[in-house]
Amino acid sequence: MNQLTAEILSRILSIVFILFAIYIFYVITKKMAVKKAENAKDAYICPKCSSLRLSLHDKLPPATRFIGAVPAHNFECADCGYEGLVPKIDKDKINDFRKNLKK
Fold first, then answer.
1. Rounded distance between C-alpha atoms, residue 53 and residue 74, angstroms
2. How far is CA 101 from CA 22, 45, 48, 84, in A?
3. How many CB atoms lie within 10 A of CB 46?
4. pTM assigned to the model
């Protein structure tokens, strides 16, 4: 019985260690992605409301994306709900884009 509990404890500790390692990897990867996004010179912007809160929104099956049937990605705006293609502009020119959009 003592050997069995030691083996179970060893397996539980192994699982906990693996989960901890996965969590650390996730945190580091997320921080690197945020840093990369902050250092990027370009940004995607919604052509309808000029929001930067966009997410990729592909309604196509994965197989069609792999064969190159779609030339560009569809985006969805979190603020106005726009779905479609969006321009990628310089971060320095975002205010100019927003001023021209209001005209």
1. 14
2. 44, 11, 8, 17
3. 22
4. 0.52
Model confidence over 35-78: pLDDT tens digits?
Answer: 887 777 888 889 888 888 888 776 666 655 555 555 556 788 98
Contacts of 41 (CB under 8 A, 6+ apart): 90, 91
HEC secondary structure over the chain: CHHHHHHHHHHHHHHHHHHHHHHHHHHHHHHHHHHHHHHCCEEECCCCCCCCCEEECCCCCHHHHHCCCCCCCCEEECCCCCEECCCEEEHHHHHHHHHHHHC
Domain ranges of the chain: 1-39, 41-103
Residue with structure tokens 């309604």? Answer: 59
C-alpha span between 58 and 13 (Å, rounded): 40
Please, which pLDDT band fits residue 11 given cuts at 50, 70 and 90? very high
